[in-house]
Amino acid sequence: MSPTPNVSLSNYTTMRLGGIADYLAEIHSNQELVEALHWARKRNLPVLMIGGGSNIYWQDDGFRGLVLVNKILGYKDHIETDGSHTLTIGAGELWDSVVARSVAAGLTGIEALSLIPGTAGGTPIQNVGAYGQRISRVLVSLEAFDTQTDTFVTIPESNCAFSYRESRFKSTDRGRFFITTITLRLHSGNPAPPYYAAVDDYLEKHGITTPLTPAVLREIVIAIRNSKLPDPATAANNGSFFANPVVSADKAKRLEAEFPGIPCWPGDNGMYKIPAAWLIEQVGLKGFHDAETGMATWDKHALVLVNEHAKSTADLLHFKQKIVSAVEEKYHITLVQEPELLP
Ligand code: NAP
Asked: Dihedrals φ, ψ of 56, to 5°?
């Protein structure tokens, strides 16, 4: 483990912007993680851990410390006596390859999370969810290094403080834990209806009437995502840039009265979700190419901000503010960004 000095962080975010890190090292095992932390402590340097860089972007000032890139691999499938499968997965595994392997084994639980970029260890941080599935529903526990107690700890799902796109790892305990392994419980069989409207539409359009297997649902989610989301390899982006606003039933009612046709999906705890993409589209900013900042919103999905030829993170932040202000002015809703701005 020998950290590389002066590394451009723009290579470590799919948005491809950001300054220089003083040091960066790839971590392949728990042992290497401990060594890296000792190395940084000796030099009094702060430490950050990242996975695939798909849900983070960097300040232009970069980072005066050590960035660790999680490359801890591993995939173990243990069949329990009740027939369920316990998967133990290294945090550095590419998430979509984990989904592919579980689907190939005929397991249900994460197939709707197909094609989500990034690593397995990143999924609990924002409680990744899509098309009705979310990681908190299948996570048994995770293993992490706790920088407060200097030990590896096992944190059960019940102690992750999960809610809609939230967990303790991005709120109260931001930066405290370095996730090394996640453990999931999946089952053989088919995903149960009802499915999301987008999936139902696809089934109808393609005349699919047979029961949905995990493999077919994965194929459908991949087809839907490919039809409306850019490939980070060709268009620099962080996926959905804003979380879907969650509002009270009262506020949802008032919005429906003032803006007939506004979509309000029932969410957790009697709250309602408003699709952020719809709000951005309504203020005329879908497929908006901004000459001033070199940023754009994707033509097929307003929630995706694309770096076309931005020069800096400052450009991105300026563009983001244009969107937030436009939505605020019309709907009195403040969009909150989903990717994390580091450090
Ligand atoms: P979409 O299908 O256009 O839907 C937009 C919104 O409507 C989402 O908030 C979604 O809720 C909600 N929705 C749609 N059908 C629903 C149903 N049958 N019941 C309840 N709520 C419903 O969404 P999109 O922006 O293209 O994204 C597709 C999926 O990927 C969505 O599930 C979205 O949330 C997910 N996604 C997740 C992340 C993440 O975890 N960070 C990032 C990007 C997109 P939900 O948000 O609860 O699904």
From this structure: -135, 155
* Domains along the sequence of the chain with CATH: 4-70 (3.30.43.10), 75-188 (3.30.465.10), 236-342 (3.90.78.10)
What the block records as the tokens of 212 is: 């949905």
Output the CA 287–ligand 1 centroid distance in Å: 19
Tell me whether residue 269 is exposed, middle or buried, using C-beta atoms within 10 angstroms of its C-beta: 0 to 12, 13 to 18, 19 or more: exposed
Distances (CA, A) of 35 to 74, 92, 145: 20, 17, 12
What pTM was estimated for this model as a whole? 0.95
Distance (Å, rounded) from C-alpha 32 to C-alpha 28? 6
Measuring from each residue's beta carbon to the nearest atom of ligand 1, which residues come in under 6 Å?
126, 128-131, 165, 196-198, 239-240, 244, 265, 273, 275, 277, 303, 338
| Ligand 1 mean position, distance from CA 309 (Å) | 28
Ligand 1 atom with least separation from CA of 244: 9
Tens digits of residue pLDDT in 43-74: 999 999 999 999 999 999 999 999 999 999 99
Residue 143 Cα to ligand 1 midpoint, Å, equals 28
* Amino acid at position 195, single letter: Y
Dist. CA 281–CA 303, nearest whole Å: 9
Atom of ligand 1 nearest to the CA of 164: 47
- Out of 116, 199, 273, 298, mutate this one to test ligand 1's pocket (max ligand atoms within 8 Å of CB): namely 273
Q: Whose CA is nearest to atom 31 of ligand 1?
A: 130
